[in-house]
Amino acid sequence: MLDLPVVRRALPEVVIGDAGLGREIRWAHVIEMPDPDDLLKGGELVLTTGLGAGDEARHQAAWSASLIDQGIAALAVELGSSWREVPAPVVAACARANIPVVAFHRPVRFIEITEAVHGAVINAQFALLARGEEIHRRFTELILQGRGVPEILAELVGAIGNPVVLEDAGGGLVYYVSGPHGDDLALSAWADVHRAEDRGEAAEGMFAAEVRLLDSSWGRLLGLALENPLDDFDRVAVERAALAVAIGLLAQQHDEQLRARSRGAFLSDLADGRVEEGDARRRADALGMNPGSRGALLPIVATWRAPSFARRRGSADAGEARVADGITWTRLSGELRTALSSTGLPVLLGPRDVDLLILVALGARGYDAALAEHIAQLFHGALDRHGLGPDDAALAIGGPADTWVAAGQALRRVRRGAGAATALPIARWHDARRPGVADLLHDLRDTPELDAFVEEQLGPLLGDAAPRSRALLETLEAYLAAGGRKAEAARALHLERQSLYLRLRRIEETLGVSLDDEDVVLGLHLAVRALRFRRGLRAMTR
């Protein structure tokens, strides 16, 4: 403002506030009324002759305080008509707030200053807009050229002359470009930002723009002021870069999701027996996995447990199950494939309905429980980063198959085992090499015959929702799970043995049976296990 010709002609003198001369002026406003409350929005250059402030020190101080409270950028006073010099109360109030006070020693037409200031503000805004559009165009070109996050951030560093850091929603480092400042200095500044935020303080010397994907926060892009303070253009550039990063990530994610669906369709066809050996090899090779002579294929299936992961057949996502917060096997497939590939074994995986179908080429490694445990650890480690665990997804691992056709048959069996595992006690993984009773009950879960069987066996305990009936049903389940060993059942239920005996007698009386009869026990055990599939009573067995 002081460099404008119309201002220089007024012989300006900075009375106080040299340290605040860098303040941004948003607008210019003339104020001559005695009560200036609620006239401003902040960032204004206030022009005055002092007429409204008057000659009383008390009123001058109150008048100045009102302007300061409204966030003015500077105060310019024309001397002569009201004041011969800027009054001490005005100077003192502005000095305390570090507000620059400028005195004009020659008369000046305020309208000329406001026109000049407004023109300069508009020109600066237009220049900022033009620079913002230019950097946005450069980011867009990078995306269209197939470049990714590293190139976008390198372009941003070149534009703002300061380091930038991309972090995920948890504050973890994803990527950074330090520029000429060096990695240590850039990462130290980034760590300082997090330390300040952990203390609940506003971090200084940085600007952060949110990176959003699919209506949720993916992370932040931070510009760190090491070389120069961050100005308005730097902030615009960081915001445009954050948008470009989001578009780039979405493009990569979309590509991965298309590939995941193709892999899922192939594995589903394989499991349904619709692919012959030669075609299977060719399709697997086209999808990026050709184990060749690398040994057997290990079938693995993951499936969602909770009702929120229920199927939506016929949806836009080819029937894939969705979670309330948007997590699907399709979205997780890239991360899970990376995790499982860290074993060094080729992996092919893809979603189908509520399931994630997986084949791992074992090569010379062979199969053992240690490998299964390692795969489960990698799988659940990837889910854990999204707040999911074994209680959200069941993982079933089958036995190795020597051919693609055999692998498809094994996938079908393991898929069945994974569905059955959703009604079993929570475990990191389930051994699906040999079908069990749970698989049979899972297959029969929607049949009227199974419903009738459960009602016939357990009817008196099911018709009453009272806590007593539920306690008896829970006791029966624990007793049967313990193989009729009463001491073990009592420990599982945290009951005194005498209390358990009383409950078992009550169960016999309610059902009209004897728990000493092997056929009765077998029927009740099947019914109780079937009940889990009918009503999802997994909570009892956790």
From TrEMBL:
Domain (PucR C-terminal helix-turn-helix): residue spans on this chain: 472-530
Superkingdom, taxonomy of origin: Bacteria
Boundaries of every Purine catabolism PurC-like domain copy: 2-120
Protein name: PucR family transcriptional regulator ligand-binding domain-containing protein
